[in-house]
């Protein structure tokens, strides 16, 4: 097992632990860049949707995973990001200006809402955010000049660098655009956690009393985390609007919020990797179940389509199993397997029980 001895604080907060890890991520980005030439346009569309979920998951992970605040209404901020982006573009703004502006607009609204709502905690905060999501659905209908009312609004093609980027017309270009957004958000997120602000998020998550004793302004930290979380989620909502190409009040129902919560829980709360693992499960597992259903029907003769909703039930059962048997999520499971592989044959089954006594900040790094 390779042990990396850290000799300074700067080395401790380095973005990549060593050159090997940086090289791994470089290879991963190169593979993701070349992916459109290796798979069909249909699968590429599904992967593009996973990228959008990755950004939305990172948005919620800032709040739930790294600040310890519960939200069941983040679909509302996806809606705000989507409608604001389309409205800015309808006013003649270029997409490259409208996209970050929509994220900033959503973040400001989130920070304003956070000031009163974050006085609550636990189940009361969850109920308040749930109510917020329902209110935004109604506002999307009432604010017809901006949201198109019940009919909704169409997402126009994106004109950029002499290219017309459209999900169906140019899926490769749309995929690369989403991939760039994912890389930028991930780098920003990772650097945020290295900063004093990111450390204050972790301190508030682990113990508000201890954080306050160390001089952290808990109220301001929570509001900042909520605003940043909403901004990233709004960015995902803007990309989602261009992915589905028409949005109305039904595009961001409460089911989207629950899916986001499931995503970060399944992937692993408290880690950026968890947002990616969760997005892969949430985005691709239903498609995998559908493919398995067609395979069983065509090759084995078992027609599970005669039982409506069984694919959804299987999806739910898998999620429940993950939550029960691996509370740290898929990323925690991956870290356990990695540690056992590196310690083989000295690994013990109960070696991870001691880690429960560690601080959360140390366990999930």
Question: What do you see in this structure?
Answer:
This protein has 365 residues and is mostly helical. The protein has a domain at 24-252. The protein has 16 helices and 4 strands. It has helices at residues 9-12, 19-34, 41-65, 74-90, 95-117, 122-142, 144-147, 171-194, 196-206, 208-213, 218-244, 254-267, 272-300, 310-325, 329-343, 360-363; strands spanning 153-154, 158-160, 163-165, 246-247. The strands form 2 sheets. The protein has a two-stranded antiparallel sheet. α3 runs parallel beside α8 (171-194). The longest helix has 29 residues, at 272-300. The two termini are 18 Å apart.
Task: Throw out a few tags for this protein.
365 residues, mainly alpha, two-stranded antiparallel ribbon, 4 strands, 3% strand, globular
Topology of this structure?
Blueprint: H1 9-12, H2 19-34, H3 41-65, H4 74-90, H5 95-117, H6 122-142, H7 144-147, E1 153-154, E2 158-160, E3 163-165, H8 171-194, H9 196-206, H10 208-213, H11 218-244, E4 246-247, H12 254-267, H13 272-300, H14 310-325, H15 329-343, H16 360-363
Antiparallel strand pairs: 1-4, 2-3
């Amino acid at each position: 097992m390779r042990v990396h001895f850290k000799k300074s604080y700067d080395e401790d907060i380095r973005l990549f632990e060593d050159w090997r890890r940086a090289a791994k991520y470089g290879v991963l980005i190169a593979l993701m860049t070349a992916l459109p030439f290796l798979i069909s346009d249909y699968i590429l569309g599904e992967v593009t949707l996973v990228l959008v979920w990755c950004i939305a998951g990172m948005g919620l992970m800032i709040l739930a995973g790294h600040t310890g605040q519960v939200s069941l209404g983040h679909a509302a901020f996806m809606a705000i990001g989507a409608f604001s982006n389309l409205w800015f573009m309808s006013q003649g703004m270029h997409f490259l200006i409208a996209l970050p502006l929509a994220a900033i607009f959503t973040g400001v609204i989130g920070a304003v809402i956070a000031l009163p709502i974050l006085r609550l905690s636990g189940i009361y905060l969850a109920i308040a955010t749930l109510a917020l999501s329902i209110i935004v659905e109604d506002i999307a209908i009432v604010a017809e000049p901006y949201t198109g009312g019940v009919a909704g609004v169409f997402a126009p093609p994106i004109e950029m660098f002499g290219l017309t980027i459209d999900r169906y017309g140019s899926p490769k270009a749309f995929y690369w655009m989403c991939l760039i957004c994912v890389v930028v958000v991930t780098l920003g997120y990772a650097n945020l956690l290295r900063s004093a602000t990111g450390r204050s998020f972790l301190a508030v998550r682990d113990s508000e009393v201890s954080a306050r004793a160390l001089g952290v302004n808990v109220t301001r930290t929570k509001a900042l985390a909520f605003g940043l979380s909403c901004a990233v989620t709004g960015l995902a909502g803007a990309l989602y609007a261009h992915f589905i190409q028409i949005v109305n009040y039904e595009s961001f129902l409460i089911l989207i919020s629950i899916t986001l919560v499931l995503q970060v829980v399944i992937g692993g709360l408290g880690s950026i990797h968890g947002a990616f693992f969760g997005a892969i499960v949430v985005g691709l597992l239903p498609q995998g179940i559908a493919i398995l259903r067609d395979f069983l029907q065509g090759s084995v003769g078992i027609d599970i389509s005669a039982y409506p909703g069984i694919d959804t039930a299987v999806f739910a059962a898998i999620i429940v199993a993950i939550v029960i048997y691996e509370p740290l999520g898929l990323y925690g499971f991956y870290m356990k397997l990695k540690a056992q592989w590196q310690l083989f044959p000295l690994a013990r089954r109960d070696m991870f029980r001691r880690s429960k006594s560690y601080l959360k900040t140390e366990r999930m790094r």
